[in-house]
Amino acid sequence: MRILDKYILKSFIGPFLFGIFAFTSIFVGTGTLFRIAQYITEYGASLWSVTRAFILALPSIVVLTFPMAVLLASLLAFGRLSGTSEIIVMRAGGMSFLRLAMPVYIAAFFISIGAIAFNEYVVPAANHAYQNIIRNEIKKQAEPPAQEHIVLKTMEGDNISTLMYAKRYDSTTKLINGVTAQLFTNGEVTQIEHADTATWNGTYWVMHNGVIYDLAADGNGVERTMRFKDQILPIAKDPDQISQEQRDPDEMTIKELRQQIKALSSSYVSTTKWEMEMYQRFTIPIASFVFALVGAPLGLQKQRSSSSIGFGLSVIIIFVYYGVMTFAGALGKGGALPPLVAAAIPDTLGIIAGLWLNWKVSK
Description:
Elements: H1 3-43, H2 47-83, H3 86-92, H4 97-121, H5 123-138, E1 146-156, E2 159-170, E3 175-185, E4 188-200, E5 205-215, E6 222-232, H6 239-245, H7 254-266, H8 272-299, H9 307-334, H10 339-362
Antiparallel strand pairs: 1-2, 2-3, 3-4, 4-5, 5-6
């Protein structure tokens, strides 16, 4: 790497780390600490419980601050180079703006890739552990009395062997309504079982008044249909496990979200909320690269040498981006737009703006 690239990267990394700390502190101070205080005053939560809950809440906050920190670092790095006229000397030496900004763009690209991995392998597990502490230790509510849209699965290695969907589960009466179970062989659905209800007999679940569909091996429809009065549900989960295994979208990995979407789709249940969560697992981290495209050329504008101006400008851009993301997300979840389109709108607009700004300053 050239000395100049190292110099520009050094100007970028410092503000980037500061941005992560600063924006995380803002999120924590305005939301997380308030909830922690509420848990202590309303539920009498112990210091050990709230400390663990606080630590587990941080990953989901930090992953949101990566794009913000990249934007701030890009603005400050190039704003300082512009304010001290160093950028003029560099460009006078024959270096184009795109070549000067390339180290920042490459760094932002790898930050986006790392954020996607962090959002997949760290954030869902931390969110699930956080919810378990809140539900089981602080609120002392191990399981809600009733849950809707229940999905359970059993695995054989990396493949699903059984996938069950139920419209409603009542933990008080141990009754499941609207049960559909899909049995897989080598990754393909070979049998579908449907029943009005299923009850727990103390050992296993029994479906009542249902039908079994054996699917043809060539995939061309149903080969055989059989009705039953009572049938054992092919899911070896007791009532406690059913409640504990239900997760919100932000507690699931991308693979689990896909399985959830598949289960809900097969039962003709709307999956827009789950699809939006899955697509945003990519679009929000990619915003780090998008913000670099926007921040670097904006940093070259006149009067950008002040760090306070750079911070203020980053706040405005962040507000606009997340405002568009919230609005588009609402349209996607409401069905007005396809979830993929709704999730991609903020990054698409950001890329268009970034390319235009890069073209403008490169002239």
